[in-house]
Design brief:
single chain; FAD/NAD(P)-binding domain; Alpha-Beta Plaits; 2 domains; 8-stranded mixed beta sheet; globular
Length: 416
């Protein structure tokens, strides 16, 4: 086979959580699949690290949970927040009925590497690194493949189905001509890393005086996110690095002797431009978008990765059967959107409500904050609902695709 002219049944643009999970499940089902990832590895900082109970349950269904949890991670049975000097419980996952009643904090590159390594058992699953999708191939009104840039030159991959899983700035979505509805977001996030000590306090969220800080435990350092007003990064940069350090210390005083580690805007601070949007239609003949390419999520709740993985599982459940019975029709593509559109809309509605009625007023105020006096009366009646929303979401998907390697092994044992 010409290395620069490939043929496959499914070509997935983007080796993030949605793309890798879909590729893994289709390859596991015996469907020839190629995942194209533009980087040389998965090692990039300031990505979401929260693996929620819904995703851990999928790992259990795949028989991979025990090996997965051997990877370095932290387990959060509760999501705690500090409002001024008051600490509250935002979610308590002990109320769930899943096998894992916690959020696992695991660097995303470990999650993706795990899927890539597990996928090596399946001959139909292929990952091609340093292959950046640059365009779509179209024939007779149908998407027939992609063009990609590689170190060896241009690569052309022809496929029965192209899946755009290349994130919130999806080139596949852009070139597809599909219409996008922008729901708006009043905030952006400045991500940083600051060293961590075992004695550091643990709340994930800290809110006070018009500032919101997110702190993710990466064992030897904190991944720190300072939530700011939409478009406010330039103003903060003009005030200087010392002002940024002061904003962090104001919410996390125990970092006072470590914020000097933030030395350069270009090297030590990463701007995440928050988007909340969704495609009106996720597909066209020969093409499907999933994950952030179909619906960019707010970082509120940290549910974006897990929603993308749910998309991938639903897509695999529907598409594997379509591939096995011939080719993927527009009915199958439409079925994926019908399955995932409602949980997407409900999740985004929750996020937009919180953005507009909690986050935006918070960022506009400079007053000291305290937990509302009535919060204890609302806590227990709503805690189970909040925990379900964060841990599972509005529609949990389950693995329905077969494992062809396991099936072949069973047949071999039976025949002998």
């Amino acid at each position: 086979m010409d290395p620069q002219n490939l043929q496959t049944r499914c070509c997935i643009a983007g080796g993030g959580p949605a793309g890798m999970m879909l590729g893994f499940l289709l390859g596991r089902a015996g469907i020839e699949t190629i995942v194209l990832e533009k980087h040389a590895d998965f090692l990039r900082d300031f990505r979401g690290d929260t693996v929620h109970p819904s995703t851990l349950e999928l790992m259990y269904e795949l028989g991979l949970l025990q090996d997965f949890l051997k990877r370095p991670h932290q387990e959060l049975p509760q999501i705690r927040a500090q409002i001024g000097s008051d600490e509250i419980v935002g979610a308590d996952f002990s109320t769930l009925t899943t096998h894992c009643r916690f959020v696992a904090l695991m660097p995303q590159w470990d999650f993706l590497n795990f899927l890539a390594e597990q996928g090596q058992r399946y001959p139909a699953f292929h990952v091609r690194m340093e292959a950046e999708v640059s365009g779509l191939l179209e024939e007779g009104g149908r998407i027939a493949g992609v063009r990609a840039k590689t170190p060896a030159g241009e690569l052309e991959v022809r496929a029965e189905l192209v899946v755009g899983a290349d994130g919130r700035s999806s080139l596949v979505r852009e070139r597809s001509g599909l219409q996008v509805d922008d729901l708006g977001a009043p905030m952006d996030v400045l991500w940083m890393r600051i060293s961590r000590r075992p004695s550091d306090p643990a709340p994930l969220l800290r809110l006070d005086r018009g500032k919101l800080l997110v702190m993710l435990n990466r064992e030897d350092y904190w991944q720190v996110g300072l939530v700011i007003r939409k478009g406010g990064a330039g103003e903060i940069r003009e005030k200087g690095m010392e002002a940024l350090r002061g904003s962090v210390v104001e919410l996390a005083p125990f970092l006072k002797d470590r914020v000097s580690e933030l030395g350069s805007w270009d090297d030590d601070v990463k701007l995440l431009t928050v988007k909340v949007d969704r495609l009106r239609q996720w597909w066209r003949p020969g093409l499907l978008c999933i994950g952030d390419a179909a619906h960019a999520m707010s970082p509120i709740g940290g549910v974006g990765i897990n929603l993308a993985i749910q998309d991938a599982v639903a897509a695999a459940n529907i598409l594997a059967g379509a591939f096995q019975h011939g080719t993927v029709t527009t009915d199958a593509l439409s079925a994926v959107q019908r399955r995932r559109a409602l949980p997407t809309r409900l999740t985004q509605a929750m996020q937009v409500t919180i953005q507009n009625h909690v986050t935006a007023p918070l960022l506009a105020s400079s007053k000291p904050l305290h937990a509302p006096w009535y919060l204890p009366f609302l806590d227990w009646p709503t805690r189970r609902i909040r925990s379900r929303f964060l841990g599972i979401g509005f529609r949990a998907e389950h693995i329905r695709t077969p494992d062809v390697v396991a099936s072949q092994a069973d047949r071999l044992v039976f025949s002998t």
